[in-house]
Every structure is written in C-alpha cells, then in structure tokens.
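Morning. Coffee machine broken again, so started the prediction first thing and wrote up yesterday's gels while waiting. Chain of 637 residues, entered below exactly as on the submission form.
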Amino acid sequence: MCLGAGYALIAPAAEAKPTPGKAPAKAPAPKSVPAPGQATPDALAASLAPGSPAKDASPERAATLIRPHVANTGATARRLARSATGKAQAGCNVGDFASKTGPALIDQIKASETACVNTLFSVTGADARALFQESQMVTVANAYRDTAADYQGDNSSSITQLVLYLRAGYYVQYGDPDGVGEYGQALKTAIQGGLDAFFHSSHAYDVTEANGQTLSESVILIDSAMENARYLDVVKKLLSGYDSSYDKFYWMVNAVNSSYTVLFRGNWLPEFVDAVAADKSVLTLLRDFAVEHKDLIGTDKQFLTTNAGRELGRLVQHDKLREAVRPLAKELLDATALNDPATAALWVGVAEMMDFYDKENCDFFGTCDLQKRVREAVLPVKHTCGETLEIVAQKLNDEQLAESCKSMLGQDAFFHGVAKDTGPVKDDKNTKLEVVAFDSSLDYQTYAGVIFGIDTNNGGMYLEGDPAKEGNLPRFIAYRAEWSDKFEIWNLNHEYTHYLDGRFNMYGDFEENMKTPTVMWVEGFAEYINYGYRDIPNEKAIEEAGKNTYALSTLFDTTYQNTNTTRTYQWGYLAVRYLIQYHPDDVSALLGHYRNGDWEAARTLLTSTIGNRYDADFAAWLSKCSAGDCGGTAAAR
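Came back before lunch.
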C-alpha cells in the first residue's frame, strides 16, 4: 500500500484523513473501509494530529507531503474546508500554469485563488512535468524568498499561493518522480532561501488569522522539503509561543499543530535526530507543553496537548535520545491516568508510544497489557442483538442499544431485496459482526487507535479481516454523533452495509476487492442502502447532481488513489442509484462477477460492454434529479 520511497501522503480536507504513520492517505489501510469522511459538524478534525505509532513506517518514508487540509471544528472549520478544497473558481485551468515559465509563471500563481492552486495537487502526466520540474520549482522558491523579504503578515502579496504551489510540486513529484524529474541541490538551496526569508521576517509569527494560513502552510513546507533539522527552532518557537490568544484563530492553531508533523517525520531523517540530540531542549519543551495545556483535554483543541506527549514519546526509539526521553515520558504518565477523564487522552497518547517503541520497559512506564487495559476500561458495555450481531460500547443505555440493534437487523431485508443475492459468497465465514460504539468523536479519536490499531481522522472504520478464516470477527468502529439533537451512531447503516456487501456481494477480503477499481460500488452502494433503507433524501448528492461533474464512465474508474470525499460518496451514490434504477440487468451481471471474484470480467463489463454508452443518459438523469425528479421514491429507491 506504500506509494513509493520518500514520503507518506496526507489527503485533502474533507477526505478521510489518516493518521501520520499509518498507510498513506490516498488509500485506507488494507482490509479496512473508511466511513464518509470527517463529516461531523462539531467533531474534532485534527487532520495533522500524528496519533498512532508508525506501525508501517519505514526509513524511506521520511517526510509528509500534505494536501490542503482542515484541522479544526465547528462553523469555522466548515467554512475553511469549503474554501480550501472546494472547486476552483471559474476559469482555473492547469494549462494556464503549465504553459508559463519565469516571471509569467509567478504572475499566474499570484493572480490565482488558493482554491485554484490547490487543484494542482492532482495533476499527472505531461502537465506534472511542465508544472513541477526542478527549474519551475526553483523559480517559485526564489519568488517565495523575494516575496517573504517584504512580508506584511497577510496575503496581500499572494505569498500563500506560492507556498501552496511548492507544496503541490513536492506532492506530485513524490507520486511520479520519473515523470516530473529528480529534485537536487538547486531546489534545496532555493527552498532554504525561501524558508529562511519567511521565518526571519518580522511578521512571520504574528498571532492573527491573516498571517496564520501562510505560517501554517510554510511549516508544512518545511517537512515537504525534508528540511526538518534546519528549522527545529521554528518548531520550538511555535510550541513555546502558543497560548490562549491563538485559539480564536483557526490557522494559528493549525500552524502550531503543523509543527508536530515536522517532529513526526523527522524521526526518519538522521540529521534531524542529530539536531535533537544536540539540542534536547525540545524534549523538555514538549513535556512542558503537555503539562501546561492539560486544560485543553476534552475540548476541540485536545490534539495540541496529546500530540505533544505523543511526539515526545515517539523520540524514545532513538539510541541518542532514549535516556533523555524515558524520564520525561514517565513524568507525563505519572501525572495522568487512564481512569481520569480530565487526563486520559494524554495518558493514552504517551502510553501508546512507549508500548510500541519501548515495550520491554512497560513495567517502568506502567503500560503493560495496554491494548487490553484500554479496551476493558473504555468499552464496558456488551450487548447481543442476535446470533449475527453484537454491540460493544462505551456508554450506550438499554434504549439506545435496542434502537441500534433494530436499525441494523431491520436493514437486512432491505439489503437483500436490492442485492438479490442467494446467500453468502463462497468461502465467507464472517457469520458474526462486532459493532464498536464510542461515546463521541473525541473518544473515538482518543481510544480507537490504541485499541484497534486504526487511523481515526475519519467517520468510522469497517475492518473485515480475512473472511475465509475460521473464527474471524469482522467489526466496524464508530461513535455516537454527539452533535445531533437525537441519538445516532454516526454512519451506522453505511458501515453495516459494508459488512453485508462484503459477505453477500464481494468475494474475498477488502484487499482482494480492490484488485480493480471497485470504489464506486463499495462506497456508492453503502450510501445507496444507507439512504434508501432510512427513506430519507441524500441532499448532498442531489445538490451535486446539478453540477454534472463526472461522466458515469469516469466514475467506473474511481479508486481511493484518485478520489475525494465528494466523488467517493455523493457521486458513488448517484452512479449506483442510476444503475440500479435504470440498468438492473447490468447490476446483476456486475454482482455476478464480484461474487465470483472475477474482477477482470467485472472491469470489462464496466469499461467495454457498458463503456460510455450510458454517459449521455446519466447526464440527463442528473439534470432531472437535481430538479427533484430522481426516479424511484423521493428518497433513494
């Protein structure tokens, strides 16, 4: 699942955002299916929170390239998510950038909106080389340097667009180093000049929203360019400078949190480890930050405190730092407790690092049997719905348990009526499902990673395991929608559909299912059943229909590598709904191939037999659907 040597990647805002150190964000971890994004209106997004240990990291994965992101909550986060990752303004064209060099390129970048520059993270092929070959990147890095020399603490000079362009270049070059070309000393010198000029400017650390985005993006650029060691002092300044005055500015909080990414990826850069060994003050700074800001635990800024503890603990893996880190980590563990809601999140964060990187000393840290201890402490509720379904929960009462069971068990008949299956697929022994329900999105993000080894910057996760293995227990992990006026386990019916779809429609495990592009079906069908069974309209999808963004034949090619939240869920839903309503024979044939594990036959059906034959009719249906006539019922059937 690793995408190549050099970097791990983090997805754009509003996509399911994995935790640094887990599988690259362009795809979920093997045998897991993420729920629809970080879609909780008031849940912590923490897109840069380096949560879990780097269980699949390697020395080659030395830095993080991050696509545009959101790491905050509430109305501010929703506003910024739209501005950061929405469609670029009319007239935004890759060719306008690719056709220019020198001053003309700089003028084009500066004249564009940030939303337009963000679209460049997705370019491929000849455009990628034209945009991001080293000579182009050097030109932009030098412009960043020159612009930063007179930086006024806001984006009046369009400096943020320059930083985003540079970040996009590193991101795209990682994905296609042969196509884009290698980056060498010329770019390294230029990027250092740009970063030096910015961080030495008099307004670089202004505590304002106007400065915050440029500062945050520049901190991420440090890591994209693998200059973590050179700019360790930037990390120290942000951590030591943070106080409550930052909290009213989304981007300033984001800038502080971005400093943890510099620390996280620095673990795979020998020069960074040497820099920390030479200046161990960053270790005590992390300890002090966690202690001084324990009051953030339980709030939407919790990640700032827990990340300080995690990144301190993670440094214990290095021989040069181990003896210095151990007593500081022990201090944090002794000052917090798993059974204390006011400090548990910090305890868990530090404990998880020590359990992974210094497990043989668990007696010293008090972290032995960590996974079992956390699960028993946090998930005491156990309820059997029936022979095929069990709920494990943090706080659900009898009424809530009964309601959840009824919702899932009642979905079975609706699912089978749509899927028209004849029973489980061959070799599937997933006869029982465990549903895990945390009490809130914050609890999910605090505990699910250490208990189940998953990323938690998403709306939930279905873990299928190996369905052919006797005794395998699939589970989906979710949480109560604490922002809702009524009781609701977020994505309950979407996730339950993944279980049913895997058992009755898709041969083999999740990794097997992804051998060819099947995301349109896997996610679109989960959404179709989710909305259809509950008999409510998918308003977001209907709104998207009016934009006519994708041809049906394009959606056949959706993968976790080329998609975003809207394409995955809203457009997956629209495609599946259209096919089920108007081409049921094709759906039957497609599922016949999926159930037999004949992925190539399914692929041929979609791309050759059907091909673009339905594109025009799909477009016409989209127009009618956006106007309120989607066919079937007003909901999803």
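The beta strands are 6-10, 32-34, 61-66, 381-386, 389-393, 433-438, 461-463, 475-479. Going to sketch it on the whiteboard this afternoon.
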